[in-house]
């Protein structure tokens, strides 16, 4: 039975302990993560407010806010404006894949992560060219159609983009590669959401994804890898640009 009921903000905060004033956001996130996922807090519990966490940890409120934002991206907590922050019920399922990478915060590591993602996506496209079934190929094309249909709704567009890459990754029949790509995508999610800023970017992305789909349809691994490399080149630049305030 969890030790903390749903209204136990004080008890949760007291269990966290303080950190030094100069602690980086990544360390704050890791400390909160240890408390939130050690099995003593019931799923759905409302967590202490930012101000209380900041006081307990001995750090700035803005650092706590950034740490909670990182945990939300990873799917550990659910931040509800006007209500509070709640522990999600599926956190334990996400930890093995996502947390093995660590909480990679900050521009330098994010840029490195973009490079790694590009290499893995290119390899996934190469595998997909020979392993994707005809049914999966049809679904991949449908994701491109969804992107075209949502070019004026960037939130839906980004989701269709995500589903395209997940569809492709699943078709590789390589669970490790799929887990790696899903983990990286989770860590990059906040930047991916900002990368496509207008319909011009959306149109470029549609052409790139359509080219990947067409190349995979030829069942030529080199052509598929080349098309994905072209997409990752421009997508990587869009992501890198989104890091700049």
Explain what this protein looks like in three dimensions.
- The protein folds into two domains: 9-90, Arc Repressor Mutant, subunit A (Orthogonal Bundle), CATH 1.10.10.10; 106-242, Four Helix Bundle (Hemerythrin (Met), subunit A), CATH 1.20.120.
- Helix 6 (107-131) packs across helix 9 (175-195) and helix 7 (134-149) runs antiparallel to helix 8.
- It is mainly alpha-helical and 245 residues long.
- The chain has a two-stranded antiparallel sheet.
- The chain has helices spanning 9-16, 25-36, 50-57, 61-73, 91-98, 107-131, 134-149, 154-170, 175-195, 199-217, 221-242, and strands spanning 77-80, 84-87.
Count of extended strands: 2
Just name the CATH architecture of the largest domain: Up-down Bundle
Low-confidence stretches: 1-6, 91-105
Helix segment tally: 11
* Count of domain modules: 2
Task: Please tag this protein with its features.
single chain; 245 residues; mainly alpha; Arc Repressor Mutant, subunit A; 2 domains; 69% helix; elongated
In short:
The protein is mainly alpha-helical and 245 residues long.
């Amino acid at each position: 039975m969890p030790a903390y009921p749903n209204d136990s903000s004080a008890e949760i905060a007291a269990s966290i302990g303080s950190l030094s004033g100069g602690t980086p956001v990544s360390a704050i996130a890791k400390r909160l993560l240890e408390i939130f996922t050690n099995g003593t807090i019931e799923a759905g519990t409302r967590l202490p407010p930012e101000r209380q966490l900041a006081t307990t940890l001995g750090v700035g409120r803005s650092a706590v806010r950034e740490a909670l934002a990182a945990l939300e991206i990873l799917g550990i907590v659910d931040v509800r404006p006007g209500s509070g922050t709640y522990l999600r019920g599926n956190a334990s399922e996400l930890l093995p894949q996502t947390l093995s990478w660590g909480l990679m915060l900050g521009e330098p590591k994010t840029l490195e992560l973009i490079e790694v993602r590009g290499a893995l996506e290119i390899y996934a496209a190469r595998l997909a060219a020979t392993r994707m079934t005809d049914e999966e190929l049809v679904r991949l094309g449908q994701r491109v159609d969804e992107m075209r249909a949502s070019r004026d709704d960037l939130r839906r567009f980004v989701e269709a983009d995500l589903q395209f890459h997940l569809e492709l990754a699943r078709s590789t029949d390589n669970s490790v590669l799929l887990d790696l790509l899903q983990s990286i995508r989770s860590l990059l999610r906040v930047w991916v959401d900002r990368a496509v800023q207008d319909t011009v970017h959306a149109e470029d992305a549609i052409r790139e994804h359509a080219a990947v789909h067409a190349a995979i349809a030829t069942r030529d691994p080199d052509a598929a890898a080349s098309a994905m490399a072209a997409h990752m080149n421009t997508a990587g630049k869009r992501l890198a640009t989104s890091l700049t305030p």
